[in-house]
Write a structure and sequence with these properties.
146 residues; Trna Endonuclease, Chain: A, domain 1; alpha+beta; two-stranded antiparallel ribbon; six-stranded mixed β-sheet; globular; 18% helix
Length: 146
């Protein structure tokens, strides 16, 4: 894919994820360009700055927890965006946890991505076929489980 087309598709995916996220997610391109990560999705407010010489503060809290153990939320999700018709060797990606491959196609006439988006979770090769308007709900459920 040409860089211009790839960037246009990434922009459309960012728009779809932001559509129903209600400002709870941040989607950005990684600072260091890699072959396998096009976008990173994080929960808003997850940025932590390191300050040299800062003194760590600790607080003692006593709490009782009742009920089922909640799943720990993911801190960030890595996305690798490819054209629907493109062959991707998922085992060769050498991707870790929280890594998803998104297959989309750009409709040249509408200048938008097609409605159906195929998502593959790389750690267990599980596939999802969802509507582009539900991308934000999909990633909110991963990053902010109820």
């Amino acid at each position: 894919m040409t860089d211009n087309l790839q960037e246009k598709i990434e922009d459309k995916v960012i728009d779809c994820i932001n559509l129903n996220a209600g400002g709870r997610l941040i989607i950005f391109r990684p600072e260091e360009k890699t072959q396998s990560v096009n976008l990173v999705v994080k929960r808003k407010g997850e940025y932590k700055t390191y300050q040299p010489g800062a003194i760590a503060q600790s607080h003692i809290v006593k709490a009782r927890v009742f009920g089922a153990k909640k799943e720990k939320p993911k801190e960030e999700v890595f996305l690798y965006i490819r054209n629907k018709n493109e062959e991707v060797n998922i085992p060769k990606l050498n991707a870790g946890k929280n890594f998803y491959v998104i297959f989309v196609s750009l409709n040249a006439i509408k200048q938008d991505i097609d409605d159906d988006v195929r998502i593959v979770r790389t750690d267990d090769k599980k596939e999802f076929l969802i509507h582009k308007k539900n991308l934000s709900k999909f990633f909110l459920n991963i990053i902010l489980p109820e």
